Amino acid sequence: MTTTTNVIRTRRVPTERLSVQIAEVRDEGEPVVFVHGNVSSAAFWHTTLPLLPDRYRPIAPDLRGFGDTDPLPIDATRGLRDHVDDLAALLAAVGVDRAHLVGWSMGGGVALQYLGDHPAAVRSLTLVNPVSPYGFGGTHGVDGALNSPDGAGSGGGTANPELVARLAEGDRGEGSPLSPRAVLANYYLKPPWRSGHEDAYVEAMLTTRTGDDHYPGDSVTSPVWPGVAPGTRGVLNCMSPLHFRLDGLHLVDPKPPILWIRGEDDVIVSDTSLFDLAHLGAIGAVPGWDGTPAQPMVAQTRHVLDRYAAGAVRSGRWLSPMPGTRCIWSAPRSSARRCWRSCRHDGVRHRPGRRPRQYLPGRCRVLPGRSLRRPALRPPPLPRTGSARAVDRSTRCHGLRSHRAARTLRTALRRPRAGRRHPR
């Protein structure tokens, strides 16, 4: 049965693995697949999908255990590959061979694993506040070294039991700081901003299946602080570094362009995450802390993308002094020769690999890239596959505000026409 809400259509698609609920806008165009994060559903993308240009075909599936997709158990020993294989089966069922992937939070990990398993099927990859390529919790250092051989500090045992209980009860109130509505307002978003779609997002969060096979998953005891280690089933265990690691991402071939967008005030995926028991122990919120370092989630992502960008691709890194995001940009070498990035600091325009005429120490740096001799007034045309090169300066939270997020994604996907000024 197909239902329509404004221009969003939702329907169930039977595949060889399970029946998947998807949201879509049109049946034709270049496919762009939006993958949601943990404790959410495709409903979080509903304000973004209609804003893509008509040449694109946006598709947003509910992952297993979320929304209206079949709630099959999650085998955490495969990492995120249950979700990856479900996504591959869905795309085969709807007749899509290659697609742009957009992954948010846990969905970013699904998209990265999909790239690792099916590189030829990925046109481009956009990561929005993605989970670290070395999982969530239980590691230290940029190379994702385990804190303990059993993965202590990650997995199903790290979830807050009150949040799990309130999800299971269908709590729609705000009486507790751990109600889904309060978690959305205080952690997914940056207070005091509240979304006009809050009720819909809370309903999406409440579609999360709970238990050992879903969220948060099972756990085992550990002799190492904090006393819990990952099990073999469920959502948080499939993101444990015991089961999910992308050490070989830089070896994929071919390498599509990658855009990384993150809110600098995100408190979930962060080097000081309020959902990482090691950081909570360091600030005294979890007793008995033994000095275990917090996971540098953002630094790990940057490390993996730097390796991805080495050799076969050119890369640029822009740290914006304006409130907003930090972005890693990668593009194939052939595209990078024809691409440039510009940004304005006090009215000064500069490009990757070139010092701005008015350099702002400690505020602005662009690395590395080829220095071009003359400044251009507009970007040259790009290959049709394009390169992701825009950042959303307004994103200050774990999610994206719909209109500005969609504008960022449109810029990342489209091929500029001659005479179009570079977006600022």
From TrEMBL:
<dbReference type="InterPro" id="IPR000073">
    <property type="entry name" value="AB_hydrolase_1"/>
</dbReference>
<dbReference type="GO" id="GO:0016787">
    <property type="term" value="F:hydrolase activity"/>
</dbReference>
<feature type="region of interest" description="Disordered">
    <location>
        <begin position="370"/>
        <end position="401"/>
    </location>
</feature>
<dbReference type="GO" id="GO:0016020">
    <property type="term" value="C:membrane"/>
</dbReference>
<dbReference type="Pfam" id="PF00561">
    <property type="entry name" value="Abhydrolase_1"/>
</dbReference>
<protein>
    <recommendedName>
        <fullName>AB hydrolase-1 domain-containing protein</fullName>
    </recommendedName>
</protein>
<dbReference type="InterPro" id="IPR050266">
    <property type="entry name" value="AB_hydrolase_sf"/>
</dbReference>
<dbReference type="InterPro" id="IPR029058">
    <property type="entry name" value="AB_hydrolase_fold"/>
</dbReference>
<feature type="domain" description="AB hydrolase-1">
    <location>
        <begin position="31"/>
        <end position="134"/>
    </location>
</feature>
<keyword id="KW-0378">Hydrolase</keyword>
